[in-house]
Amino acid sequence: MVCEIPLVSFTAHGGRISGDTTDSDYVSEFHQMTEQKSSPVRFLKRELQALCGTPRFRQRLLLENGLPLEEDMAVETSADLQLILLGFPAAQPRDADELVQAVYLDKVSKVESILYRPQDPNQLSHGRTPLMAAISTGSMHAAALLLEAMADPDIKSSAGHSALQLACAEGQLEIARLLIQAGAKEHQSSRSSILSEAAVRGDLEMVRALLENQAYVRSGSFDALQLAVENGFADIVELLLAFQADTESTSLSAFRRTCLHSAATRGFLDVARLLLKAKADKDRTDMNGNSALALAAGEGQAEVVSLLLKAAAAKDNTNVEGQTPLFRACMQGQDDVAGMLLHAGADRDKCDLAGDTPLIIACKWNNMDIVRLLLAAGASADVPNRECQTPLIVASMRDHRCISHLLLLSNADTDSGDNDGLTPLILAAEAGHMQIAQMLLQFKADINKANHAKQSPLFAASAGGCLEMCRLLLDSGADQEMPDQRGRTPLAVASEEGHRRVARLLQDHVREK
Known about the structure:
28 helices, single chain, Ubiquitin-like (UB roll), Serine Threonine Protein Phosphatase 5, Tetratricopeptide repeat, four-stranded antiparallel β-sheet, 513 residues, mainly alpha, 48% helix
């Protein structure tokens, strides 16, 4: 049985107020209400709530004879009224379950009836409040009733979520607006802000509702911009920028990447355009020294590359490995982007920390289209890396035939050696790359040029036991008597390594001579 506990009571007598309250303003305002024209009791109770801070569900208005006024009844100005404020009876789990069940079933009249007992709207049922149940079902009317009953919007569920967090997560915009109007707070201990959670889901109107109430734009909540950028939500990005979101924040990135970096990497053209319009730093680098242009180039985001080039982004800035945007495009096989950068005047021969030029890296990765682009743009075919490997050496040692042929047609030096004196022909002979060797000989490579150990191409082929390569070199006029620095001839090393067929070929060639 519900126990009514009178907390405050007083009576209005047509111009005179009596009661046990000492707040004269409170009494005066109540008197003014009762002096107005007839008004439903529900309306009067709502007005009284502003005075006494107690919702209508816990108010009872009694006539002079002690009969209660029903909520749909009218109040006569001549009536003597008594206001009684009720407390809550001892809470029972079944009562909380009943209220939550009524909310889940969206039985609004039953919800109102339960609240009128009165019943605590904040009592949890299985870890959730009735207000959270209203959010789950999207019941605006139930949520409004619970908030009118002074349900606390900041109580957390057993999982640690507030009502506003749940409303945002469920996309319940109108209920979220009710919660905001009710003063729901942003929990500072949340891992991410409510604004961020709305942004990452692409909920534009929810983001707008939160932004319009500055209480939710707390420190760190402009992580929302980074999340909106990462998901390509241009409309939310535009809205956040209108509220002065920080374009240079890197708080969510392990690589200290800004919003423009994220947009460039993902190829979100409209987002990148909005960020540049908002004066985002187009040349700022991440922790690896990559600019937005370098990131876009490496990912092949041609439209964003074009946008950044039109915005005058630096074309030749290098990252911590010495790689330019052009180098990254060549390394990743992004020929369209490489062409755009070359057309824009990017340095075609700038090398990385290992000394590799864009042409060398394209040769390593056997990217014929990029090699052709670079050579057509005037890239040098003979610039070596730190190991003194030229593009032709790199292509020859990897048996990249088409690229080797293109380099030879571009007058690449056929006899340049690396740090060990290994020429393209020695490397081809050593590896048994027959077609490469044939091409080099056709382009007049020095057949007897030796490495620093005085080992000729024929010596290398003989040591490796490559019979057909030895035959090609012998037929092309290789000197089979040429010793290395230890005095070994090709025949001697072939015999030493147990290559009998090669040794026999070399012996037969001596007899023929």
